[in-house]
Design goal:
single chain, alpha/beta, Spore Coat Polysaccharide Biosynthesis Protein SpsA, Chain A, nine-stranded mixed sheet, two-stranded antiparallel sheet, 43% helix, globular
Amino acid sequence: MAPLASVIILNYNGLKFVERCVRSVLKTDYPNFEVIFVDNGSSDGSNELVKKLFGSDPRLIFIENSRNMGYSDGNNEALRYAKGKVIVFLNNDTVVDKRWLRNLIITMENDAQVGAARCNIVDAYYNKLGYSIGHTINILGYGYPMYEKGKKNDEGYIKEIPFAESVALAIKNSVISEVSFNNYKLFDSDYFIYYDDTDVSWRIKLRGYKIIVVSSSSVRHFGTFIGRMSPRMIFLFAKNRITTLLKNYNTINMLKYVPLLLIFDLARAIILIKNKKLSYSFAILLAIWWNLRNLKKIWIKRSVVQRLIRKYPDSHVMTHMVRFDPVILYSNFKKVYLD
């Protein structure tokens, strides 16, 4: 019998996309799956629409949160109800191919060392760079997307990758139990959104499992963010980047790279002040202050990672990181914040 898969769809004001997403998932050519639809306190009628259109389908489980709990705790809440051998986290702004889940589960079941798998995420509008196969980071935690040419339609293409985005991410339930914090919390509750997938991927790697991309599991992603980053987004990116390094590096690397990251962040804040981007600068300074103020709480989570989760050295993760280049880092910073 095909193993049960739990597909978690987290929704927050997704009226523009969510009907297409749920409809495509329910048409999936796989005999044994459940859909856990979590609404994070939407106010645009998207939750009511899904219940009206699909509420009679026995495969659907509805969870209604009274407020927006963010990506991390919204999915943590859904995990309490998920019974699948494989848990799939799927964005509400996606449309899945009919065979996406079948190909994903079969591939994961064939290798005991695979802890997580990323679907072939295709940009629904355009993709000039080729086939997206995940992302990596440098030693300071700054992310870089990874692309390969000519692999998108190769159904036999499976590759190990450093980190996987949570747009369409499958993790074995047994692995989730090994890399979670207390009370079966896979995602760090303090993240709200951003860097949640990098943090989880890092723990999966430290545990010794592989993360792969499966090209035959195709998911179209529309994306809901267009435009410049807001101060709120800048704060969350900077805050969670620092926290991720504090928790997951061993002691030596933490002492080497976290101070370097803080120096770079302070330099960014100063440059932004000089360029009269005061709200951006304040967001970065607030991110640093948040980590200092919550260091005790972060340290408790770090202890869980280092003592209970970690089985492999940092080299198991760092070998896949891109080379640290201050010139490229400053160029990217200038493009995002100053141009």
